[in-house]
Design a protein that fits this description.
Family: Belongs to the ThrE exporter (TC 2.A.79) family.
Number of domains: 2
Helix content: 55-70%
Protein name: Threonine/serine exporter-like N-terminal domain-containing protein
Distance between the termini: 68 Å
Radius of gyration: 26 Å
InterPro entries: ThrE-like_N, ThrE/Ser_Exporter
Order of helices and strands: HHEEEHHHHHHHHHHHHHHH
GO molecular function: transmembrane transporter activity
Mean pLDDT: 81
Structural class: mainly alpha
Largest sheet: 3 strands, antiparallel
Keywords: Membrane, Transmembrane, Transmembrane helix
Number of helices: 17
Strand order of the largest sheet: 1-2-3
């Protein structure tokens, strides 16, 4: 780490403790390793500390002098949307240097220990709405919508039980996939003549690692090899656990015969996007006033994805979706009372559904269907398309911000030059007239 000066100043203990806790919070906010690293170094620079950071999904290594090296482990905990928004607001405040590290640490502790905005039963209703919304995105038979809500309610109750029983939480993905598969085949399939996998996916949507796989691909494309590879392996392991539960359920009760369901129509996915926004707000406790901005971001990314399917191919449609969502989220975050861009990005990653495609492919392979290979290939292409679009969108957003700052500096310089000229003219003109 060559940037450390020969005689560095000692790092204040409260600042080091703040950087530790802030790095963990950023990773639990679904930030990439590169973004978290840059944020920690920017905050440290404001407080006159030359920091070197190595950020990985499971640990952070900080170095601020030749003798001061600090390692902190990162627990696997997902923050709610309201917490993600408050963490980003705190980062913006820390970058101004108007708050002490001790005060920043105290504020961060209040954010991480705050109660959810909504009670538990509202979160359960949110998961039901999410299941119905993602079911509509699959353009299903309308007869299946009440069953989607019922399966979403069942998974939400399992999550509540797992929160009180640690042993169940370890095996929750497998148990949930197994039980949902049994219910979908035994209870739902006789009424809805559709592919059982299409019936299972909406109920398990909160387990699908679509955002994790997308961020992993972004990190790999950005040369963050360790972070990207570890996230990718973890995301694939989640898909394999879910597929194992589905495979066990189908082996127990058999794979039913199904005919093509009568699809609802082209309007169904657009209604599903609205339900996804409302469901995500309730399930993940979005900040107050965030719903309208959340819906605009979701509809913008979905419209771009639909246009990409028409202009390119369905597997490459996520390219335009990822390209649009970053600058759109950045633009929306500039409006008054809007949540930070990170709050709008995470639901959009879910909406692109690379996790659902991968789950279908792995499940098909587990059942011995050759179509699973094709589904997995399409999943890989879709994930890389989304990641490439997000990378390009981030670059465009950064370039646009740099151009805007440069233009603003030029305007300010011109104004200051005009003011100097006016001062010189007003100081010389009247005085020269009187002396003459």
């Amino acid at each position: 780490m060559p940037r450390i000066s020969p005689e560095p100043l000692p790092t204040p203990p409260d600042l080091l403790e703040l950087l530790r806790a802030l790095g963990v919070a950023l990773l639990n906010s679904a930030d990439s390793a590169a973004t978290a690293t840059q944020t920690l170094q920017d905050v440290a620079a404001v407080y006159q500390v030359d920091l070197q950071a190595m950020v990985m999904p499971t640990g952070i290594l900080l170095r601020s002098s030749r003798s001061e090296v600090d390692l902190v482990t990162v627990p696997n905990r997902d923050l709610r949307l309201d917490q993600i928004g408050q963490v980003n607001d705190l980062v913006a405040l820390l970058k101004t240097g108007t708050i002490s590290p001790a005060a920043g640490l105290e504020r961060l502790d209040r954010i991480l220990t705050a109660e959810p905005r909504f009670p538990v039963w509202v979160s359960v209703v949110g998961q039901m709405v999410l299941a119905v919304g993602f079911g509509l995105l699959l353009n299903p038979d309308l007869v299946g919508l009440p069953f989607y809500a019922g399966l979403g309610l069942f998974v939400a109750l399992l999550r509540l039980l797992a929160g009180r029983w640690g042993t169940l939480s370890v095996a929750l993905p497998v148990i949930a996939a197994f039980l949902v598969t049994v219910l979908a085949v035994e209870v739902v399939a006789p009424f809805v003549r559709d592919d059982p996998i299409r019936l299972v996916v909406p109920g398990l949507i909160t387990f699908l690692p679509g955002a994790t796989l997308t961020i992993a691909t972004i990190e790999l494309a950005g040369a963050q090899i360790v972070s990207g590879a570890s996230r990718l392996v973890w995301g694939m392991s989640q898909l394999l656990l879910l597929a194992f539960g589905v495979f066990a359920g189908l082996n127990l009760i058999g794979y039913p015969e199904h005919s093509g369901a009568v699809q609802a129509g082209a309007w169904a996915p657009w209604v599903g996007v609205a339900l996804v926004g409302v469901g995500y707000m309730l399930y993940s406790s979005a900040p107050p006033g965030a719903l309208i901005f959340l819906l605009i971001a979701l509809y913008g990314s979905y419209a771009a994805q639909t246009a990409g399917a028409l202009l390119l191919t369905p597997s490459l449609s996520g390219l335009l979706g990822g390209l649009v969502i970053v600058p759109l989220s950045h633009l929306l975050s500039k409006f008054p009372h809007s949540p930070p861009g990170a709050v709008l990005l995470l639901p959009a990653f879910w909406l692109l559904l690379p996790g659902a495609l991968g789950f279908r492919g792995v499940s098909s392979l587990a059942m011995g269907e050759t179509s699973g290979v094709q589904d997995l290939i399409i999943t890989g292409i879709s994930i890389f398309a989304v990641a490439f679009g997000v990378l390009v969108g981030m670059s465009i957003t950064k370039d646009a911000g740099a151009i805007r700052r440069t233009w603003r500096l030029r305007v300010l310089r011109r104004r200051s030059e005009r003011q100097r000229r006016r001062v010189r003219f007003s100081g010389r003109g009247p005085g020269s007239g009187r002396s003459g």
